[in-house]
Amino acid sequence: MKRLKVHVKGAVQGVGFRPFVYRLAEELKLKGFVINDTKGVQIEVEGDMKSLELFLLKLSSEKPPLARIHFVDFQFLEPLGYEDFQIRESSELGEREVFVLPDMATCEDCLRELFDPSDRRYLYPFINCTNCGPRFTIVERLPYDRPNTTMKGFTMCSKCLKEYEDPKDRRFHAQPNACPRCGPWLSLYSSRGEILAEKDRALELAVEILKSGGILALKGIGGFHLMCDATSEAVVSLLRERKRRREKPFAVMFSSLEEILFYAEPSNLERALLLSPERPIVLLKAKGGLAPSVAPGLKRIGAFLPYSPLHHLILRSVGRPMVATSGNLSEEPIAYKDHEALERLSELADYILLHNREIKRRCDDSVVKVVGGFALPIRRSRGYAPMFITLPSELKRKVLAVGGMLKNTFALGFKDRVLLSQHVGDVENLGTLKAFEEMVLDLMELYSFEPEVVVCDMHPRYETTRWARNFSEERDLPLLEIQHHFAHTLSCMAEHGLEGEVLGIAWDGTGYGEDGTLWGGEFLMCSYKDYRRLFYFSPFKLIGGEKAVKEPRRVALSLLFELFGEEALNLDLPTLKAFDFKELHNLYRAWKSGVNSPQTSSVGRLFDGVASLLDIKQVISYEGQASMMLEDLYDPWVGDHYPFELEASRINWKPIILSLKEEKDKRRAVSRFINTLAQVCLRVAKEMGVERVCLSGGVMQNDPLISKIRELLESEGFRVYVHQKVPANDGGISLGQAVFGGLWEQYL
């Protein structure tokens, strides 16, 4: 007889792990206990060696479907004489390292019960079990037990309590467990704040509102959705007008995969993503049939399936696809508190559907796109966050990395892991800055985390950089400022567990460079300690600075001025026709003098310039719009490319633009341009001779570009690494920042 002591770390709380251990111990006739603690799950079992060895094997091979085991520490000891097997009270002592599981979509077992008239939870909008339901958005502190969640105010009825206490039941210690007798309920309000109905009647009226063309604000898992009929152009246009969101695409929720197939053409990988427990929004090739205003000018739609019982009930009852977009005005953080919704959403929605289960923290929907054959997170949030990235080596200190300004996430780094936050958004105004600070302090409190160093972007005008400076000063902490594209490359390296040196190709819209210019077309030799800038695209001016970011025509005009000087004003091109005569001459003077015209090497801006020259888009209404429209035009049957030149450390783009402006066929021009960029990558990779190549930055969300780069480089023996766990855009740079801060040698 021996005693086996086991410590399991990972996502092992709130997933039915303790009842699984209980059943396994009973099956093998072992005595002892299992307990949740702040590091994971602790187990002690006594029995013969053969049974203990089998217990260890089954612990990993038969674990619950949502469990993620990252580490199992065990040792065999002398027995203590346990008389039975028990599930003990959780321990709150010790450093908090346990993984909080993300919110998971309603499982098939709960769905069957939800629509079974004989089940006591029939049509109950808050049905869940240990395999599904809210986790991250309801936990207040660790360990994850009901008294530590926003469900603590709901006393379970005798039937729910029996399930909760029965180790053999699917709902054993399902912390949000409830039923219509004892759990949360719905309330429907008018936009004036008047309560109209509760419980079943509130749901019935909400369905009638959506069927009749109304706009509903609905409280979900991590915040509010604004919902309306996705097939009605009138109501979708009205929602755009109210939300002040001119063209940025809306996500659409469908009742089933079969319904999605009627409106879109998902690949097998895209279908798998749609049906995964994370239930992200997946970007799919559209067939048509939805209102044109859902995704103006684009050939893709963002589609997703219901992930909460309430969404399932509404989608099935309404019987048509629903726009389900974040409950906010454009540029504001998503609303997640009841009072916020009644105040902020009353002008956007006709009615507001609330429930009385509090949301502890906001968590927007995740967005995923298949790029180059891999699933790439565009926005990593509900279903994925928070989750740890395990590093190839241990960090030397605890790090708070605050990320960038756009598509912000932040990160906490300690030991051999980095915890990435949920999506925050664009930190460009007071509202999002407050939300950012709230979310940083909340996650630090949840994990009792006290950083030893703070890392931020080196851009002096980023709100996150200013916040990091103030925070580090107040707490007397060292502050590191890291170059934007270096952080991009480090994030890709860390995600893939790469050590040593790699060639980092980091392309995006803009990032502050060490020479004071705006970088964005970078080839960097990187290690975790440092980087060297090897090659970059020849700089050009952004006429009007920030204005040029929103006006591709200004970028194209700058490219033409670089090529032809003042003679460019006489060219017969769509770009020049997008301005009036006086404007053109004023802009030429600004370009020549350099007034408010910073230099950039950005490939993202080159995409904008091409969009203008080909008259695809002259002024954009959201970031990345022009490049997305170019991506839709790519023709894989076009195999050739434009000429380009490498001059010392610079890539001369002038031959590319000179050739492109003569092109008559837009699809051919776009295809050749993208092919040329891939050829540039191959040429530089050959020049440097580094086998491992990491692709990062917002431009590296372009499917044909990534596919072409991989095709060319891998055929020549290079190993190409692309993002699969964290976004290639600025939503991923906090990972790179955290790794740099944790390994930086000055503080060793």
Walkthrough of the structure:
- Helices cover 33% and strands 21% of the residues.
- With 748 residues, the protein is an alpha/beta fold.
- The protein has four domains: 2-87, Alpha-Beta Plaits (2-Layer Sandwich); 186-355, DHBP synthase (Alpha-Beta Complex), CATH 3.90.870.10; 367-494 and 729-740, 2-Layer Sandwich (Nucleotidyltransferase, domain 5), CATH 3.30.420.360; 504-721, Nucleotidyltransferase, domain 5, CATH 3.30.420.40.
- A hairpin with a 2-residue loop joins strand 2 (31-37) and strand 3.
- Provide the CATH top-level class of the largest domain: Alpha Beta
Q: Outline the biggest β-sheet.
A: 11 strands, mixed
**Overall tally of structural domains:** 4
CATH fold-level label of the largest domain? Nucleotidyltransferase, domain 5
Low-confidence stretches: none
Number of helices: 23
CATH architecture of the largest domain: 2-Layer Sandwich
What is the share of helical residues? 25-40%
Task: Count the beta strands.
Answer: 31
Strand order of the largest sheet: 7-6-14-8-9-13-10-12-11-15-16
What would the principal axes of the Cα set say about the shape? globular
Strand-pairing-aware structural class: alpha/beta
Strand content: 15-25%
Rg, please? 27 Å
Mean pLDDT: 93
Q: For the terminal residues, how far apart are their CA atoms? A: 46 Å
What is the fourth-level CATH superfamily of the largest domain?
ATPase, nucleotide binding domain
Q: Please give the oligomerization state of what you see.
A: single chain
